[in-house]
Amino acid sequence: MNGLQATLQARLAEGPLPAAEAMALALYHPEGYYRRAEGPWGFQGADYYTALDLGPLLGEALAARLEQAWERLGRPDPFVVLEPGAGRGWLGRDLLQAAAGGFGRALRYLHRDDNPAAAAAAREALAPWLGSGQAALVGQDQSLEPFQGAVVSNELFDALPAQPWRWDGERWRYEALEGGQPVWLPGHRLVHRPGGGRAGARGRGALVRRPAGPGGGAGREPAGRLVPGHRLRRDRGPAGGQGGRSAALPRA
Ligand SMILES: C[S@@+](CC[C@H](N)C(=O)[O-])C[C@H]1O[C@@H](n2cnc3c(N)ncnc32)[C@H](O)[C@@H]1O
């Protein structure tokens, strides 16, 4: 039995394990999917590829979009672009390569992704800009000064632990594992403490960093550091990968 299995079993012995917490363990435990030394990306026999594997178009389009935002904000210098879930840093690389003129000089790109394989790949992809400080890798728990600019992400939100809920006609129920079986339990049994963890649970770290019930979400902390600026996220559409969506949220 490996460490992740032992943690899972110990946690299940305490009582029902909400689906989002099970997902968080599978993803972020030291032996979890996003903590492996080898990256899961690529075309041949790998788990996934993203738009960035297909070419620089997304970075170029983003550069044009962000330059407009920079103009609207009065050309702030620096104009900081923070990317949570940045993976290999390829979007930042393509963005920095495409940005030109005054915008290119003002642009600072912050890569944020605690996946060790992603960080190693990003150091390579961003090498031309790391020395000058035009690009930097910032840890997930590293606090940021308020900045003007944008928070962007690609294929992050569909990678986060999610808590399925359903309405049974009388009350909300959440999906959990109990005794190794999936069950739907009344929502009032799921009471989150700020910072993660469930009321009544003993001796566990806060692996789920965000409350996972209805209204919980990701990406608020980075946006919270954003003084006038934009948040732009892009994720896949419905199953089959068609119809990606994006949202720009003006905060000026
Ligand atoms: C599907 S990959 C996308 C990577 C990259 N944005 C791209 O388009 O190639 C999702 C990335 O999000 C990161 N990630 C997963 N959960 C995260 C979280 N809670 N906070 C920040 N990053 C996370 C993973 O380490 C992984 O690199």
Strand adjacency order, main sheet: 4-3-2-5-9-10
Shape: elongated
The helix tally amounts to: 9
Determine the strand fraction and express it as a percent band.
15-25%
- Would you state the CATH class of one domain? Alpha Beta
Structure summary, number of beta strands? 10
Radius of gyration: 20 Å
- The SSE string, one letter per element, is HEHHHEHHEHHEEEEEHEE
Largest sheet report? 6 strands, mixed
Portion in helices: 25-40%
- Mean pLDDT across the residues is 82
Estimated structural class: alpha/beta
Uncertain stretches of 5 or more adjacent residues = 192-224, 240-252
Question: CA-to-CA gap between the ends?
Answer: 52 Å
Secondary-structure arrangement, i.e. CATH architecture of one domain: 3-Layer(aba) Sandwich
Query: Which small compounds were modeled alongside the protein?
Result: S-adenosylmethionine
What is the CATH topology of one domain? Rossmann fold
Describe this structure in words.
This protein is α/β, with parallel strands linked by helices and about 250 residues long. It has a domain at about 50-160 and about 220-250: Rossmann fold (3-Layer(aba) Sandwich), CATH 3.40.50. Helices cover about 30% and strands about 20% of the residues. It is built from 9 helices and 10 strands. It has helices at about 5-15, 20-30, 50-55, 55-70, 90-100, 100-105, 115-125, 125-130, 220-225; strands at about 15-20, 80-85, 105-110, 135, 145-155, 165, 170-180, 180-185, 225-235, 245-250. A 6-stranded mixed β-sheet has the order 4-3-2-5-9-10. A hairpin with a 2-residue loop joins strand 7 (about 170-180) and strand 8. Helix 4 (about 55-70) crosses helix 5. It starts with a helix and ends with a strand. The model is unreliable at about 190-225 and about 240-250 (pLDDT under 50). The site of S-adenosylmethionine has 16 residues, from loops.
